[in-house]
User: Fold this.
Amino acid sequence: MGVRIDLHTHSEVSDGTDSPGELVRAAAAAGLDVVALTDHDTTRGWAEAAAAAEEVGIGFVPGLEISTRHRGRGVHLLAYWVDPADPSLAASLSRILDGRSSRVPAILALLRGLGIELDVADVRLGSRGAAALGRPHVADALVRAGVVTSRGEAFARFLNPGRPAYVNRYAAPLEVMVRQVSEAGGVSVLAHPWGRHGRSGLGEAELAALRDLGLIGLEVDHQDHDPRARADLTAVARSLGLVATGSSDYHGTGKVAHDLGCNTTAPEEYARLRDAASAVVRGPAPDHPRQRGPNLR
Ligand code: AMP
Ligand code: FE
Ligand code: FE
Ligand code: ZN
Assistant:
């Protein structure tokens, strides 16, 4: 088998269940040669993951999955090799993380209205190293309280939009984040663009406009895309000159049917992504030094 590359995974630093080190060791055990850590809106797991990758001898790509908004809908943007110290990017991420944590009490108040008593400490209990608490951690608390039997059931009954304990939160404008990722020296890839909301809002014309703003790739092979969507999205990526990636969106035991390496990125596409990252011209400060550790590539 050729080189196996998985560019989308979550550790317990966001809503996965493995520590970053455990995740990288599991990736090596699963036969992956390269793995990216892409926790939601945080880079906090990078150092531990990079050290573990060094130890087990696989490649590590530092990434994150940014919560953005586009035409009133949530869109996830994968970003790789950004400088986490970039001031604009760091400010956006902390605003997103604040929005995530501050919504938990509101969710708990709605649950209380339904006769379900949980407090923030109950939610925090199962979220070892999380940079911010989110719906998945509330879901886990509902499982521990015996209200539901899985995260999936918690979302379906209470936490999804339209369900009685749903609370919206801040997400940054997609166009702004595409630009900030390039300005922070990184490359951006739209996560599961035709996933939950289908194709609407992110058709070829919108994708072309995002490419013109600096978007580099589309995540094509993802569990939320059926074979038809994958084929059509591959064709769109080709016609727009975008990189086509494939990934598991692994969350440990937090999400079923997302095992490490269940989808992978072709080595040629990965090479294009890396080339694009080395070609990024940082802005807006032209003399800002690039701060990339050699083990982070
Ligand atoms: P939040 O960012 O707090 O709004 O929570 C959204 C996260 O919850 C997503 O990133 C998913 O990983 C996770 N999620 C959404 N729906 C489900 C589900 N049905 N089962 C498990 N996890 C889910
Ligand atoms: Fe998630
Ligand atoms: Fe996502
Ligand atoms: Zn994800």
In short: The first strand starts at residue 5 and ends at 6. Residues 15, 40, 100, 134-136, 151-152, 155, 251, 255 surround adenosine monophosphate (ligand 1) (CB under 6 Å). The CA atoms of residues 12 and 128 lie 7 Å apart.
